[in-house]
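User: I'm putting together a teaching handout on how multi-component assemblies are represented. Below are the sequence lines for each component of a complex, exactly as they appear in our records. Could you produce the 3D structure of the whole assembly as structure tokens, so the students can see both representations side by side? Please keep the chain order the same as the input.
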Amino acid sequence: MSARTSPENARDIPEATVARLPVYLRALVTLSEQGTATCSSEELAVAAGVNSAKLRKDLSYLGSYGTRGVGYDVDYLRYQIAREIGVTQDWPVVIVGIGNLGQALANYSGFRSRGFRVVALLDADPARHDQVVAGIEVRPFDHLERIVHDHAVAIGVIATPAVAAQDVADRMVACGITSILNFAPTVLTVPAEVDVRKVDLSIELQILAYHEQRKGAVTA
Amino acid sequence: MSARTSPENARDIPEATVARLPVYLRALVTLSEQGTATCSSEELAVAAGVNSAKLRKDLSYLGSYGTRGVGYDVDYLRYQIAREIGVTQDWPVVIVGIGNLGQALANYSGFRSRGFRVVALLDADPARHDQVVAGIEVRPFDHLERIVHDHAVAIGVIATPAVAAQDVADRMVACGITSILNFAPTVLTVPAEVDVRKVDLSIELQILAYHEQRKGAVTA
DNA sequence: AGAAGTTTGTGAACAGGAGAACAAACCGGA
DNA sequence: TCCGGTTTGTTCTCCTGTTCACAAACTTCT
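Assistant: Of course. Below is the structure of the complete assembly, with chains in the same order as your input.
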């Protein structure tokens, strides 16, 4: 998304590869839980839903962690990918906007299991304060700065309505947050050094609708 | 995602463009609500968060809907894009898995406003049946086939735990659903003619963590 | 030890998308 | 009608990402 500007990056991994590493990691965790000790690139590719050549090229950016003629050690590769992504460490996260979606995110177990720790839930609406969601008390949005400072939070999640999102993002940036995951259906403007990724639920549906429409047109 | 195999596609729009059209549409709706009658490609590009050259190229795949020296008529372009995506028509949708996320999706206003109509909420857990979410009664998963048939549903949304997702997808495909939006953190295997798009909440966070980790490494 | 079989890692060709740059087309004023 | 200013639509070039194909490297069996 945002360009890494440091001129001397020993190993800069293509963005497309970075986006797939979490998928590989998830597949490896599943394999490990099933008791699989080693796997070939073909097996892992099927589990991850990609082409095996692409998988091998992706992994080659991390290093040579496989053994020719044998395959990959599941736990070893799993650790290496986790380390490369950075999910071996603990990432404190704040969620702003505790509506339906914010609550769903707070309860989502997939965060905790990957090193993301929700340290606070914030909402501007006083009616939601002192409510407890996923074992965490909802606090006023004004507490953002103190929480970010106290817990060294680098990642913020925005789950507010679209109209509030830019204000929340501005406040987050002012507090020192440098990565934002935006669920609000609006474009955020932030300084270049801040990474923003967006998840728009309805956009994905619209893409499906486009293809669905064309399927119908072909048969008609 | 899946390749349109029909050999005679009058105008086949690049996948990257298709993915951006909903963003343009959203920006146009916002501009229209603000009372803007016409806009230049530069203005719209800023509102959509993209490069203006890219925007113009994207729009050129749909046709020539602008006027040189003037710009685009907001409402006219909005309609053309909506028609191209297919959101001028009504899309009945079923949501399976009414946990936190499923409830959030059922309540999400962004669906209805873009032509997606939630015709049923299904869950395998009897404890959830007869519960009312977003004004819709939660019904047993077994009702899937009848509902899909009665309402001519083509699009299904999966918001179940990962372990159940493949079974749900299989049943959906068997009922005739040809587009699936998958929120479960697992890879789905479906026939080639079925489109699947996935939204993985934790993958986006992991991508942010990767870049965040590198930011720290650069300064250290 | 050597041969046969397997699987990784990578070079090279190919496809697709991004961005710069410009000609074509339109508006308004004189 | 003609001229200057503006903005689109499109061409061309560059870059990123995908896929093929194969040499290198490892295991196992004899």
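A couple of points students might notice: Residues 26 and 48 of chain A are 8 Å apart (CA to CA). Chain A has two domains: 15-85, 91-203.
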